[in-house]
UniProtKB/TrEMBL annotation:
Keywords (A to Z) from UniProt: Membrane, Transmembrane, Transmembrane helix
Name used for this protein in its record: Bile acid:Na+ symporter, BASS family
Organism, scientific name: Bradyrhizobium septentrionale
Superkingdom classification of source: Bacteria
Residues spanning the membrane: 36-54, 61-85, 91-110, 122-144, 150-171, 183-203, 215-237, 258-278
Length: 304
């Protein structure tokens, strides 16, 4: 598995397509999604450099700008833009709810896979998760007239981040040297978790596409458009080289819609569920495009 890590972006696309083509496979691994997310967060904690993480937290871009953009400015801007474009109310609700979610738990792992700095996505994700119990219910109430329990959100996030963080600290303390010797194994476990999650997110998606092909196509198109627009916004607002700008783009574009999805429970409408599932396509397909851009810049910088 470790030998496949450099081909991770391509494998993520294969994982999404496999889950779509083989519905039974996606349904079979769906119960493992929670475990996959935990391993993703744990693996990221084990791989991140503590000193680099603390330096990242001192940057205003990381502790202020990106979390504020991710949790407040972006969902509000998307909501008002969707209203101005005259989209159907149910699509506006789905768009806003997906963007008010904190950055995806796997963003730092994807950044590391692409050779980008994983400390920035990890720091912004953690700070955004701390804001989520306040911002998500407020935005959901304002745009969707939906009441979400902030305490339940906070508990769910605390269990995920606190549990993975505590285990990572314990492993670093007890087996720090061994962890450094097996970085490739950790990378492979993170990639396997990403693949498992990619397949699982497609559970039920094929049936929805077959039942509502036009609605599914609309949702997928909107999901790609929204994700790419947010990634472009992050890239434009971030100073530095292309790698730094693409990293910020990943943070703003890829969202943990599963958190909002689970918090909504039975209140999720069929259209919202369809759109939430559609958001997984750009999350797992755009890393291949980013990989191509990064390789192109590195070749240009290496050429005399």
């Amino acid at each position: 598995m470790a030998k496949l890590v450099p081909r991770g972006p391509t494998l993520l696309i294969i994982g999404v397509l496999a889950g779509l083509v083989f519905p039974a496979l996606a349904a079979g691994v769906r119960p493992l999604m929670a475990m996959a997310i935990f391993v993703l967060v744990l693996g990221t904690f084990l791989q991140v450099d503590g000193a680099a993480f603390r330096r990242a937290l001192r940057r205003p871009l990381v502790w202020l700008l990106l979390p504020a953009l991710a949790m407040l400015a972006c969902p509000l801007a998307v909501g008002f833009a969707a209203r101005g474009a005259g989209l159907r109310p149910e699509l506006i609700v789905a768009l806003v709810l997906s963007v008010c979610a904190p950055p995806s738990s796997g963003t730092a792992a994807v950044a590391r896979m692409l050779g980008l700095d994983a400390t920035v996505p990890l720091a912004v994700t953690l700070l955004s998760m701390a804001l989520a119990p306040v911002t998500v219910p407020l935005i959901a109430a304002g745009f969707a007239d939906l009441a979400l329990d902030p305490l339940a959100l906070a508990t769910r996030l605390a269990l995920l981040v606190g549990g993975a963080g505590a285990l990572a600290l314990l492993l670093r303390h007890r087996a720090g040297a061994q962890l450094e010797q097996h970085v490739g194994v950790i990378d492979a476990l993170v990639l396997a978790s990403l693949l498992l999650f990619a397949v699982a997110t497609m559970a039920g998606m094929r049936a929805q596409i077959e039942a509502q092909p036009l609605a599914a196509a609309t949702c997928v198109g909107l999901a790609f458009g929204c994700n790419l627009a947010l990634q472009a916004l992050g890239a434009l607002l971030t100073p530095g080289n292309l790698a730094a700008r693409l990293t910020s783009g990943l943070v703003l574009g890829n969202r943990n819609v599963g958190l909002v999805w689970s918090a909504m429970g039975a209140a999720v409408s069929p259209m919202t569920a369809l759109f939430f599932a559609a958001t997984q396509f750009p999350i797992y397909m755009t890393p291949r495009l980013i990989e191509m851009l990064v390789r192109r810049e590195r070749k240009e910088n290496a050429s005399p």
